[in-house]
Design a protein that fits this description.
Blueprint (H helix, E strand, L loop, with lengths): L11 E2 L2 H10 L11 E6 L3 E7 L15 H15 L9 E5 L2 E4 L6 E10 L6 E9 L5 E12 L8 H4 L5 E2 L5 E2 L1 H16 L19 H15 L6 H4 L3 H11 L1 H7 L10
């Protein structure tokens, strides 16, 4: 695992807008509370970012050993490291880390440096190590084995695909409608979002419901209770109930069918 980084003048500066344009090109839609990067540099070998918790959630950094938004910044640095020349038509999403070692207090301001440790190759998985440093340059955390997985064969999901309302047929010729799945997901998440399901628009972006980094953890946990293990980047990849419903139709059709009875007690399944 690399030690402290003191030479931050290397590499090509990347404007912050370009960083998040690159994240968007991966198919990852991130709201303002997940925009911690305020400076970025990239070279062939490594990437460097300066992170700052957005003002709206800055007071929550003490609630976590490593704040979810800062961890997201680590993953975003790895995504930048993965494509030093910018978007190339392929899509990679974070899928996890192998090791996190905390060595000090991780405050609301820090820097991240990542190094590639393995190329994606035939497996479709690229790996990186990272160090997190405080404002004084001291290493406060090490992150090993940040994994990025290539998805969709390099083809980005189009707006037409995410808006497609085609019914999906499953076993026993039972047809599932996208609208039913949207209603199911709204019912499952309404308590956490603190809105009645009927008031949630299917094409309203999750950020407009006030969903922040804290709520995303709870939403993932809620859906995992019903559907089993899910990607921790689910609410980055899909930004509306319309998009999320299409994902569950594609990936969890059997379970969705079991839950589509409209029972008000569905949360207890």
């Amino acid at each position: 695992m690399p030690e402290a980084v003191t030479d931050t003048g290397w590499g090509r500066p990347v404007p912050v807008d370009a960083v998040y344009a690159q994240i968007l090109a991966e198919g990852l839609h991130v709201g303002p509370t997940f925009h911690p990067v305020i400076e970025a540099r990239v070279s062939r070998e490594r990437a460097f970012t300066r992170l700052r918790l957005p003002e709206s959630i800055r007071g929550t950094f003490g609630d976590y050993t490593l704040h979810p938004t800062l961890l997201t910044g680590v993953l975003q640095t790895a995504l930048l490291n993965n494509k030093p020349d910018g978007p190339d038509g392929t899509r990679f999403i974070p899928m996890g880390v192998d090791m996190l070692r905390v060595r000090g207090v991780i405050g609301p301001d820090c820097t991240v440096t990542t190094w590639r440790t393995s190329n994606s190759g035939a497996s479709g998985i690229a790996k990186f190590d990272a160090v997190v440093q405080g404002p004084d340059g001291a290493v406060v955390a090490e992150v090993g084995g940040v994994s990025l997985r290539r998805v969709d064969g390099g083809r980005a999901r189009t707006a037409a695909e995410t808006a497609d309302r085609r019914p999906v047929e499953g076993p026993e010729d039972e047809t599932l409608d996208l609208g039913q799945v949207e209603a199911l997901l709204k019912e499952l998440t309404s308590e956490i979002i603190e809105l009645p399901a009927a008031e949630m628009g299917s094409e309203t972006e999750f950020g407009d419901f006030g969903i922040d980094s804290l709520m995303i953890i709870d939403l993932n946990r809620c859906l995992e209770e019903t559907f089993g293990r899910l990607s921790k980047t689910l609410f980055f990849e899909y930004q509306t109930f319309r998009e999320l419903a299409q994902y569950f139709l594609d990936a969890h059709a059997v379970r969705v069918r079991e839950l589509s009875s409209g029972s008000p007690e569905i949360r207890d399944v």
